[in-house]
Design a protein that fits this description.
It is a single chain. This protein is mainly α and 269 residues long. The protein has a single domain, classed as MetI-like (MetI-like fold). 73% of the residues lie in helices and 0% in strands. Helix 2 runs parallel beside helix 9, helix 4 packs across helix 5 and helix 7 packs antiparallel against helix 9. The longest helix has 37 residues. Its main location: membrane. It is found in: Cell membrane. InterPro entries: BP-dependent_transpt_permease, MetI-like, MetI-like_sf.
Length: 269
């Protein structure tokens, strides 16, 4: 029973991954083609109806799954890499440097992730898929760095680290053999949770016009463009909203299941 969350999350995320991969080889319609009339209701020809330009809406939602996963995976990987590196370096640094890095991380964490991402996008050349990944990844890295710093200090305080140092093991080897394996379960769960936040942040940036530019059909962009016709064609808001909710819930369930799987004592409790 304690792995129920893991299975539910794996199914929801797996469906989104399958849809995203399917868009690489097949789509119901050309995403830029006016395949029907404007704002048509759902039908056998158009499962989610059409948008205000006559484009197939189900095709747009499918492409949105690919964009959400691309940004989520890219931002989580980038944030995890930066955060882990900074956290380990801070734990090994001298007290003055450590305190300065810790204060800097606290300041960055005080800013909302979306606000930091908006500042990074504003400072770059313009909105794009790569810019969104970079912005969200940098914004997420402060939280992960703070967590890794705390976990690394806890590991370095153990007696077996002292024994390893007395045996002549270098700090680089200690990090690879002792530190990273011990903090990996907690960090992986944190990265999985940040993955869900990255998907929401990408949708928010796209809604504000700071995400991937058209013709990329991000879910946030679909929500923004459909708000003016929500009373005439509510499916334009419902479809991307449900897709976004399903993916984020799936990621959260998956992270919760991984936490139970990697921490048997918590799962037994």
């Amino acid at each position: 029973m304690r792995r129920t969350s893991l299975w539910i999350g794996a199914i929801l995320v797996g469906i989104n991954v399958a849809v995203a991969l399917l868009t690489l080889v097949w789509l119901p319609y050309d995403p830029t083609a006016m395949a029907g009339g404007r704002l048509q209701p759902p039908s056998w020809a158009h499962w989610a109806g059409t948008d205000r330009l006559g484009r197939d809406y189900f095709t747009q939602v499918m492409i949105g799954a690919r964009i959400a996963l691309t940004v989520g995976i890219g931002a989580a990987a980038l944030g995890g890499l930066i955060g882990t590196t900074l956290g380990v370096l801070s734990a090994f640094a001298q007290r003055g440097i450590d305190d300065a890095l810790a204060a800097t991380l606290d300041i960055l964490i005080a800013f909302p992730t979306l606000l930091l991402a908006m500042l990074v996008v504003a400072a770059s050349d313009g909105a794009s898929l790569g810019t969104a990944i970079l912005a969200i990844g940098i914004a997420m890295s402060a939280i992960l760095a703070r967590l890794v710093r705390i976990l690394t200090k806890r590991v370095l305080a153990q007696d077996y680290i002292t024994a390893a140092r007395c045996s002549g093991l270098g700090w680089g080897r200690i990090v690879l053999v002792h530190v990273l394996p011990n903090i990996a379960p907690t960090v992986l769960v944190a990265i999985a949770l940040q993955f869900g936040l990255a998907v929401i942040a990408e949708a928010s940036l796209s809604y504000l016009g700071l995400g991937a530019p058209p013709p990329n059909a991000s879910w946030g962009q679909l929500l923004q463009s459909a708000q003016s016709t929500v009373y005439n064609a509510p499916i334009g808001v419902i479809a991307p909203g449900l897709a976004l909710m399903a993916l984020v819930l799936g990621i959260n369930f998956l992270a919760d299941g991984l936490r139970d799987l990697l921490d048997p004592e918590r799962g037994a409790a």
